[in-house]
User: What shape does this take?
Amino acid sequence: MPYFDDVVLTLTPEAPGTPGDFSCDALGALLEPDVTEETRKYLCGPKSLVSTPEWKLTLDYDQNWDASTGLSAWLQAHHGELATALIESSTLAQSATVTVRVKPGPFGGTAGEIAEGTVELSVDGQPTFAPYTPVAARETEDETEVEDEAVA
Assistant: This one.
């Protein structure tokens, strides 16, 4: 089984938005579904029904309040906004994209320890899962698209 390593966490606020890479603040990023299941007893026999998943994105991180690069500061600055979260794992060869509602995380902690935080962000809709594409391959694809547009 592969480890959840070599992960890139990018958050982009709604347009106009500049993507921020918070991989070096984050200790963990967990995209988790909440699904309810109910067994109905019909006259013809029991049937199990499941709901559409409601997702949340839980971020565990070291607090970083640097206004230009810190995840803590970014969450505070974009409170209440919608943002796109992209989680890419080269070791899992997979990526997940979700739209989240941003809310701030905690401030402070225990004396003498690293100030950590956890925030649960509600997901609007369903995630999109796709194979992981290395950055170099994406740049090549982008250049090809630009060349194709120039020819057209």
